[in-house]
Amino acid sequence: MANAEQTVTERFTELTGHVPAGVWFAPGRVNLIGEHTDYNDGFVLPFALELGATLAAGVRDDDRIRVDSVDLKETVELDVLRPYDQPAATTGWSAYLAGVVWALRQAGHAVSGVDLVLCSDVPIGAGLSSSAAIECAVVAACCDLFGLDISPIDRAKLARVAENNFVGAPTGLLDQAASTLCQEDQALFLDCRSLETAPVPLPLGDQGLEILVLDTHTPHSHVDGEYAERRTTCEAAAKALGVPALRDVTDLDAALATLTDELQRKRTRHVVTEDERVLQTVELGRAGRLRELGSLLDASHASMRDDFEITVPTVDLAVDTARANGALGARMTGGGFGGCIIALCEQGDGDRIGQSVAAAFAEAGFNAPSWFCVTPAQGARQL
After folding, report:
1. Where are the domain boundaries for CATH 3.30.70.890 in the chain?
2. Site (Transition state stabilizer): which residue positions (predicted)?
3. Annotated catalytic residue within 41, 68, 115, 175
4. 316 known member of a binding site
5. Per the annotation, does 35 bind a ligand?
6. pLDDT digits 0-9 by tens, 37-62
7. How far is residue 9 CA from its own chain's centroid?
8. How many angstroms separate the CA atoms of 167 and 45, rounded?
9. Which CATH superfamily is domain 205-374 in?
10. Which residues pair with 76 in a beta bridge?
11. pTM of the shown model
12. Which residues contact 220 (CB under 8 A, 6 or more apart)?
């Protein structure tokens, strides 16, 4: 992070001729447990990573926004600050930054022109929420630059507005809430219906544990269609059961007996049991019994594989290999059909397990994975 801070500061100075007003950071995130529960009004439990977006920022003396990506070596300058109804000023990576300025203005906040220089070490396409990290860094910077008194949860909501209404990605609040509200050695419990949040202790290091995050580098295919199919099936199941959402199912056996469509039965079983696993994980975290999380991670993966059917061979091999080589539990994290797995490991053991997965991938003819070990980190802040 220190190198990133220096990098964006130097680039900002080169671009503008003066030093930035400050440097801000917002992290990517991993979802510890709670997959495909969000759009079923259920529960999720993410935590923040040490990887994230670093942003140098300063106020301009005109009504323009200039954004620069150190990683892409590209600068975009535009006017998104005049009032208008349809956000169509920019697309691609710059939309994630410009969209936040637009969302703040649309919400009535007094934001003028800014220069923003970005670099990020969150892997793109790995399901670790690189876009939310960018958005939340911009929100934090603008709040400090313009003296905006916006609560952390409302900052997350504004970042989501930028992604939903400017970028055009229909995400929930999980990513932005985690990037903004998470604290060191804590996970963030989020009720996706009420949007209420609560911290959950996750002092992995104190209990001799760490989490391995391994990117399978599996190309995502047909994800949009598969995601839409599952969401539609879940909504149809809820309608058949006469409940607002699958989160409201209180008797799973009775629900499964009522449903006649086999896909609806499988999808319902995953969502209802996954919500319960989130609540059990919260209890274990608050009781300080983190070593017992492994069985819940294992059960989550089995449910995603068998009932929600969103895993792929690389992901299953990574999970199975991690367990066989000493992980206390492992599961796919994210929307599915590729991406990352997480594994609960003894402290110092994660890298060896990652190497074991790499060897298994090589033997199977899969692309080489990449990995790193994490403990929960702090959310968006000024450096």
Report:
1. 205-374
2. 29
3. 175
4. no
5. yes
6. 999 999 999 999 999 999 999 999 98
7. 26
8. 25
9. GHMP kinase, C-terminal domain (3.30.70.890)
10. 67
11. 0.91
12. 125, 337, 338, 339
